[in-house]
Design a protein that fits this description.
two-stranded parallel ribbon; Rossmann fold; Helicase, Ruva Protein, domain 3; Glutaredoxin; 410 residues; binds glutathione; 45% helix; 4 domains; 10 strands; alpha/beta
């Protein structure tokens, strides 16, 4: 059975389209891009070392590279359809387009994609990239002038039946994320589409009508960007018909726990629970990168969790060290855990898990703690593990007994 290893929003759509066109049975194995990096998940590397999509498996065969996959499928299952005969003069032209799509044409497009977010830093490359793109689009437009298909007079595997994003959203909603980072030229094009309600697909001879609702998001101050000439005022007026301002996460900490639970369900198992200290740490952090940062933090914690409880040991280093500093600043007894708990919004109070309750034991004596520190050569995490407590608690006891960890480190 043919299996398409399909990544959301990727070139593997082209392979799915081709298989449908050929009427060949196949299965889809779905992979999701990482919400923060947009990269493919590592599981794809188990199928092909590059870890990219598409990859096709057909029995014992594994084929990567979309051009090679298109070629293989048409040769193997096409029965003479969708490609000129191997001995016809059009065959080389067909191969040229297949290779061109992922070769010469792709480089400037990828450069544009990577440099788009650099803003002014990309200025030295911009002219060259724009020239290259204009050159390639001009070439494709010219090749399609007065004709519908790239090779001979018929539809082939070299033509890619994938409408542009705006056309695809016709009759629906198009979400444009980080619109504040859109280059000025692209802003001009978007404005033209919004005003004329038309798109001009590559190779088409006439514009096509579209009816799309546009939803945009940005973390930039667009008013300021308009003043600084970085965002077109006329486009801002068009896209800001209805504005919703979402405050940064640090200004709505009451959402942190609910969001954390949501991500925990999404990436972990239903049994996972957060320890009290873990939630306190989440609430103390200011989340400069907002919900995406919280999502990565919880995703990481679910992957590192041992057993059913997520604890401070699974916090990213930046947050963990913040909590250590916080613990060290508070004099013993000045802020009790009970007091800290009472500062939490009511919706956030956490019931300790049964495992946590059963692990409650009296604090170690000074001699006991010193003995443990000696045995673990000053490794606080190991001492904590042996006592069934978090590192922060071990630090608090050390402070109480005036013990310095340096005495126990080699
Ligand atoms: N030239 C390759 C490109 C493969 C490729 O870069 N695929 C993208 C999706 S369109 C991908 O897997 N991106 C995710 C990543 O790089 O982690 C092909 O035609 O198959």
């Amino acid at each position: 059975m043919i299996v398409v290893h399909h990544l959301n929003n990727s070139r593997s759509q082209r392979i799915l389209w081709l298989l449908e066109e050929l009427g060949v049975p196949y299965e889809i194995k779905f992979y999701q891009r990482d919400a923060t990096t947009n990269l493919a998940p590592p599981e794809l590397k188990a199928v092909h070392p590059l870890g990219k999509s598409p990859v096709l498996t057909d029995g014992a065969r594994t084929i990567a590279e979309s051009g090679a996959i298109v070629d293989y499928l048409i040769r193997t299952y096409g029965n003479g359809r969708l490609a000129p005969a191997a001995d016809s003069p059009d065959h080389e032209t067909y191969l040229e387009w297949l290779h061109y799509a992922e070769g010469s044409a792709m480089l400037p497009l990828m450069l544009l994609l990577y440099t788009m977010r650099l803003g002014d830093a990309a200025a030295p490359l911009k002219g060259r990239i724009d020239d290259e793109i204009a050159n390639h689009l001009g070439y494709v437009n010219q090749a399609l002038e007065g004709r519908e298909y790239l090779v001979g007079g018929a539809f082939s595997g070299a033509d890619r039946d994938k409408p542009g994003l705006i056309k695809l959203a016709d009759g629906g909603t198009l979400f444009l994320d980080e619109i504040g980072d859109m280059p000025l030229e692209a802003q001009a094009k978007l404005l033209r589409v919004l005003q004329s309600r038309e798109v001009f697909p590559l190779g088409a001879t006439a514009p096509e009508q579209v009816d799309v609702r546009i939803v945009c998001a940005t973390h930039r101050d667009l008013h300021q960007f308009v003043k600084d000439g970085k965002f077109r005022g006329d486009l801002f007026a068009r896209v800001s018909e209805h504005l919703v301002k979402l405050p940064p996460l640090r200004e709505r900490k009451e959402d942190v726990y609910q969001l954390a639970k949501l991500f925990c369900r999404r990436y972990g198992t239903l049994n996972l629970t957060f320890s009290f200290s873990f939630v306190v740490a989440l609430l103390h952090h200011d989340w400069p990168f907002n919900v995406r940062e919280l999502e990565s933090c919880i995703k990481r914690a679910t992957a590192l969790a041992e057993g059913d409880a997520i604890d401070v040991g699974q916090l990213p280093d930046a947050i963990a060290s913040l909590m250590r500093d916080y613990g060290a600043r508070a004099a013993p007894g000045s802020v009790s855990e009970r007091e800290r708990e009472s500062r939490m919004p009511p919706s956030l109070s956490v019931t300790p898990s049964p495992a946590a309750v059963s692990s409650r034991r009296p604090p170690p004596t000074e001699a006991g703690l010193r003995e443990l520190l000696m045995r673990h050569r000053g490794n606080i995490a190991a001492v904590g593990r042996e006592l069934g407590k978090e590192r922060m608690q071990v630090h608090r006891w050390m402070k109480r007994y005036n013990i310095s960890v340096e005495e126990y480190r080699d």
